[in-house]
Amino acid sequence: MGRAPCCDKANVKKGPWSPEEDAKLKEFIEKFGTGGNWIALPQKAGLKRCGKSCRLRWLNYLRPNIKHGEFSDDEDRIICSLYASIGSRWSIIAAQLPGRTDNDIKNYWNTKLKKKLMGMIPLDPRKLPPFSNSLHTTSSPQSQAFSSLSQLYNDCSPYYSTSAKSCLTGFESFPSVQPNLLFNGNNNNVNPMATITTANHHSYLQGHNQEGLISPMQFYPGKDNMLIFGGTDQASCSSSDGSCSQISYGKEIKQEHMNGGSLQGYNLSNSTNGYDHHHHQENQKFMVDYGNQISSTTWGDGRGNDHDQKPSVVLCGNGTSTTQLQYDLEEVKQLISSSNMSLFFNDENKTHESREAMYYYNY
DNA sequence: AATGAGACCAACCGCACGCGT
DNA sequence: GACGCGTGCGGTTGGTCTCAT
């Protein structure tokens, strides 16, 4: 016996929304909010629609600040990078692209971007150094991500050309990360982050810079198979199904801890399907520094409007000893400007040469 | 002008999860 | 702990549009 349907299928309208329905829904939500109950909303709003359908319509098309139309090159890059890192987790990818919804991105990827990338992949992941071996032998998130990348490459390989463009696709990032940078040879790591030495970092980056392989986006594994990645832009509440629950209108102000922001951590290990969409570990904390202001909240203002401020520095820690980065804004800017992607160190209890590190990327 | 194929994209669907009871 | 409900997610479907023939 399956679960009961969310609504009376016989009495709900399906298919495209009419302008009248749109207007009704919009007006109702702007006036009263969702009331935290999408199932009951259509009846209250006088709509013969399923609650899920209303929710989708609102989040994908009716709420303010939705961006439609062509994707920019930057957006392409972000999508590619994230796809290479985390696969088809569209809601997470959407969170990095203000105004875009996961549905939008998913469609864009499936119909255009994937094809656009055919013939543009400069590296063959199958010919990569040892790093790939460690990925292939586990069901780690890294291996999953690598599988995604490999799969994509395989999909595209018939079209692969050695005269591929030199432009960055974002796919370079994955194969170009070395195993010693990722795992630090310590499986029982208390450190939630992979440790990267300054020496490794610089030689690695510089070497790859020369080859033009620096990616705008990097990931690194943390404790408990945590795959962590970062971005520069503020979070958007762009999941088609409202995965960013700080989207709040009218009377509904719903707080979700540690979900917003350009840095997110996802436990990829304790879910039956291999990943957890948005179920953050309780002991994980991400923080954002807006200059003087340390915020651990979301970027939204509770009314669906993103703040203009972007995080200048992204902080992270193990939840019990989150520390602020020691660099001031100018130093940060200098570091960023010296490289497409820079590392920052944030654990003052460690030496400069071996601090917890995270990637910071900038376009 | 008619038609068929392919592309695009809005919407639907089922599953899994969190939360309250 | 079990259960039911509401929600979020990603995969898939199907209607519409565009273009080639």
Descriptive notes:
Keywords: DNA-binding, Nucleus, Repeat, Transcription, Transcription regulation. This is Transcription factor RAX2-like. Pfam families: Myb_DNA-binding. The protein has 363 residues and is α+β, with helices and mostly antiparallel strands. It has a domain at 12-62: Orthogonal Bundle (Arc Repressor Mutant, subunit A), CATH 1.10.10. The chain contains twelve helices and nine strands. The protein has helices at 19-32, 41-45, 51-62, 73-86, 90-95, 102-117, 131-136, 141-156, 173-176, 179-183, 198-210, 329-338; strands at 195-197, 219-222, 226-229, 264-267, 285-290, 293-295, 313-317, 341-345, 354-361. The strands form three sheets. The chain has a three-stranded antiparallel beta sheet with strand order 1-9-8. Strand 5 (285-290) and strand 6 form a beta hairpin. Helix 4 crosses helix 8. The longest helix is centred in the first third of the chain and has 16 residues, at 102-117. The chain binds a DNA duplex (21 and 21 nucleotides) through residues 2-4, 6, 14-17, 36-39, 50-53, 55-57, 60-61, 88-91, 102-104, 106-108, 110-112, 239-243, 245, 271-273, 276-279.
Second-tier CATH architecture of the domain at 12-62: Orthogonal Bundle
Write down the secondary-structure element order. Answer: HHHHHHHHHHEHEEEEEEHEE
Write down the CATH topology of the domain at 12-62: Arc Repressor Mutant, subunit A
What are the segments in which pLDDT stays under 50 over at least 5 consecutive residues? 121-146, 153-363
**Overall pLDDT metric:** 49
SS content category: alpha+beta
| CATH superfamily (homologous) name of the domain at 12-62 | Homeodomain-like
Radius of gyration: 21 Å
Query: Strand arrangement, largest sheet?
Result: 1-9-8
Instruction: Report the sheet with the most strands, covering strand number, pairing sense and barrel closure.
Output: 3 strands, antiparallel
Helix fraction? 25-40%
Report the total helices.
Answer: 12
Broad CATH class of the domain at 12-62: Mainly Alpha
Strand-residue fraction? 5-15%
- State the shape: elongated
Question: How many DSSP E strands?
Answer: 9
Subcellular location: Nucleus
GO molecular function: DNA binding
Organism: Coffea canephora
Main location: nucleus
